[in-house]
Specification:
The protein is α+β, with helices and mostly antiparallel strands. It is built from 13 helices and 11 strands. Helices cover 56% and strands 12% of the residues. The relative contact order is 0.05. Residues 494-502 have low confidence and may be disordered.
Length: 502
Amino acid sequence: MRQTCFPPRPVHLLALVIWLVAGVAMQWLDHHQYLDLASLAVLLVLAATLSSLVLSPVASLVSSTLGVIAFNWCFISPRGTLQVDLREQLLLLLILLTVSWTVALLMGRQRAMTLEACRQTRQAEQLRQLGDSLRDAASPEDTLPLLGQMLAQLARQPVSLLAGEQLHLAPVSADQLDGLRLSCQISKALGPGTGRHEEQQAWYLPLRGRTASFGAALLPLEQTAPDQALRLQAQGLCDQMGLALERSQTRQQAMADRNQARQQALRNTLLAAIAHDYRTPLACILGAATALLEQRDRLQPEQCQRLALTIRDEALALSRLTENTLQLARLDAPGPDITTDWEALDEIISTVVQRLRRRCPVRQIRTRLSTGLPLVRCNAILLAQLLDNLLDNALKYSPDQQPVEVETAFDQDRIWLRVMDRGPGIAPGWQERIFGTFERGPQSGDRRGTGIGLALCRTIARVSGGQLGYRPREGGGACFEYSLPVLPVPATDTDHTNGEQP
């Protein structure tokens, strides 16, 4: 929209007041003979200068000419006529006219330069405002309404935007939609002054990036003259949006490529780990099963039982390895779908501990659970798997005669679940590394493992909104601490958990 840098006012009336005040002043000064003719002429030049501040160049030239004619009529002898008797007076009038015209032209040029500077300032401010909005927005599409508002100010009527294949703001006809798509496809502006489809009563401006266009804008021209400076400003706004859309698309593609590469690397690593770590238990199962099948008649009952236990234990180890590996691959994928509900933490702990006691009847597991534990928002299967892995590690790396302990604590903000043992602990340089995939610390010794269990526990803690860390236990041993925030339980969920009808 074209605007001026000067406040709106009745400029012609103001110029008329200036000339009237100057005329009255010159009449009064001439009547009292305070000033001579040359001094009165200076007042005429002053009035011409002041009126040029508010009038256009043409109006200033006309008013200056009329002022010189009126000065000749009123103050140059013979008065009341346009005749000039003396050459000096004629020269004075010519000088007055020349100076007045010069001042009018200079003021007109200065006014034009001022208006151009104001226009450029407004354009720069528009570009800056759009750039700030694009920088702060989560997605460039969120700033499309702002771009439409700016373009509507330029066109003085609603505009339409095509971003990708989606239309925004004002609806368009089928022909206009084809024009928008053509402008986007060829990355060229269409309409008056563009050299392409100049018969159109609208501008079709592409949202250009560096390599392609990512949409187009439709600016109707029914209420706006096809000013090329206006089109260049609108095109600059569209190009800024196009560059932002291109950067956003590039970021999304790069993120997708990284996720795909990460998934492929994880898949390859998991396959390599499975191929390596499945060999030993499979060999044990195959050997025990072969012995039972081929030498059953020559084996004692105790030997048969021992071979059957070997098959069971190795099958359980394979089952745990498979479950942990698949779970880690699923949770490491972008945006895993995790279903959560309000659960009682003490019930999950009791279930896992009882299962481990049946699996390892010779080991002692002690629990110290706080009374009044609040409900937690979690996935019960994942939380049970986390606790099962922590307890399995504690049983594996601690002496058989030492108990493994599970305790809970809470305050107003967080709940803590701790698994503690009296094993060798973790070396300082490995206290964070052990949570990496396939990382096994020096304390592992000859114990079998893949380094997946703790990595899975850390991943479960992360996707569940909690934190899992390690700290040395006083008196020796390890303490793995899982914490998660205390969330307010809605009344309906509390009633449902307690078995009451809402």
